[in-house]
Design goal:
The protein has 369 residues and is of the alpha/beta class. It is built from twelve helices and twelve strands. It binds 1,4-dihydronicotinamide adenine dinucleotide (NAI) and magnesium ion.
């Protein structure tokens, strides 16, 4: 098998701290499972600004376009808060997403049994939960024109944003959701507001078109997004893959993620069109930010970033078995009671450090091999 090329961008704050633990897992996969990665490392965010005066150098951008997958830690932090908007750390991440055209954002919400007390929902409602929200990431109301704030000619002002979706934009993200469903329990629920929005009507029609013409084997249902929000909290296990637009996806994915506990546990993937080798352009990153309040203290939970690597193994490298091995190792250490500070319940205990969590996961991996 040819080597798997991976660009690692640790970024700022706790990004480098959690990425160190991910790199230990990558080394383990190479040594013990024969998975050889071509790993390169580069700077993004404030770290890139400090070195190059921009949050993402052109060479780094070019490299990101070539590799099979990019793995990013986090960007930003108080040291960069006063920078000009054009060179803010977040702009580095936005440039990656935009130039790689990463239109499909995958946010899993998975309940690890050992953490089910963490949820604000009843244990039986979330125990065993494993759903995936697919959010359209490059279009919709965050990008539509016209936009702006203008005088309304009556002495007041008017703020305008435009929800706009094309056939192609809807079909490609729908395909991405159906593909995912085939690897899971073969079920997609599409969410929009076709009752009050024309873009929602088109969304429903085009998702149905892709379904009928290309994925008739997958079970498709439609739901209004407001009802979807209710159902996610009432009975989340009725879903498998949910596909929705940028705005609804932003809100619904945050809502679904929090069903299951801590920010330190949440991975994500952003996928684009297939490259020549058939693999999609891909960026994997934890959902959390750079956590300046705990940076440099060894307190960061590396699990979100390690689970992001697992997603890369599954969706970019066709290594679903190794991805599952990592997820099982995480499950085991949690079941054994190993906790970073963010996972401590009210009754306390002694948290492990970032590297302590890495040690435990590597031990669990070694036991599994
Ligand atoms: P944050 O996600 O960095 O932190 C929120 C809270 O969760 C903090 O109390 C933090 O300590 C905790 N937390 C986050 N990740 C954790 C982990 N792995 N283990 C343990 N605790 C964890 O969000 P916040 O504070 O709003 O933003 C901080 C900086 O990060 C800002 O500069 C923001 O712009 C940036 N940011 C970057 C993102 C990215 O790189 N994708 C996403 C969100 C924020
Ligand atoms: Mg959000």
């Amino acid at each position: 098998m040819s080597n798997l090329s991976l660009l690692i961008l640790p970024g700022d704050g706790i990004g480098p701290e959690v990425m160190t633990q991910v790199e230990r897992v990558i080394d383990w996969l190479g040594d013990q499972r024969g998975l050889k990665f071509d790993v390169s490392r580069d700077l993004v965010g404030g770290a890139a600004y400090d070195e190059h005066g921009v949050p993402l150098a052109d060479e780094t951008m070019a490299k990101a376009q070539e590799v099979d997958a990019v793995l990013l830690g986090a960007v930003g932090g108080p040291a960069y808060d006063n920078l000009d908007f054009s060179v803010k750390p977040e702009r580095g991440l936005l440039r990656l997403r935009k130039e790689m055209d990463l239109f499909s954002n995958l946010r899993p919400a998975q309940c690890f049994d050992a953490l089910s007390d963490f949820s604000s929902l009843k244990k039986e409602v979330i125990s065993g939960l494993d759903i995936m929200i697919v959010r359209e990431l490059t279009s919709g109301v965050y990008f539509g024109e016209p936009r702006g704030i203008q005088d309304d000619n009556e002495g007041g002002r008017v703020g305008v944003n435009t929800q706009r979706y094309t056939t192609n934009e809807i079909r490609r993200v729908a395909r991405s959701a159906f593909e995912l469903a085939r690897r899971r329990s073969n079920k997609v629920c599409s969410m929009e507001k076709a009752n009050v929005m024309e873009s929602g009507i088109l969304w429903r029609e085009e998702v149905s078109w892709v379904h009928e013409n290309e994925y008739p084997d997958v079970e498709l249902s439609h739901m209004y997004a407001d009802n979807g929000a209710m159902q996610l909290v009432r009975a989340p296990k009725q879903f498998d893959v949910i596909v929705t637009d940028n705005l609804f996806g932003d809100i619904l994915s945050d809502c679904a993620a929090m069903l299951t506990g801590s920010l330190g546990m949440l991975p994500s993937a952003s996928l684009g069109a297939p490259m020549e080798n058939g693999r999609p352009k891909a960026l994997y990153e934890p959902v959390h930010g750079s956590a300046p309040d705990i940076t440099g203290q060894g307190k960061a939970n590396p699990i979100a970033c390690i689970l992001s690597l697992a997603m890369a193994l599954r969706y970019s490298f066709d290594q679903g078995e190794e991805a599952a091995r990592i997820e099982k190792a995480v499950e085991k250490v949690l079941a054994d009671g190993v906790r970073t500070g963010d996972l401590m319940g009210p009754d306390g205990g002694t948290p492990v450090s970032t590297s302590g969590m890495g040690d435990a996961i590597l031990d669990a991996l070694s036991e599994s091999a």
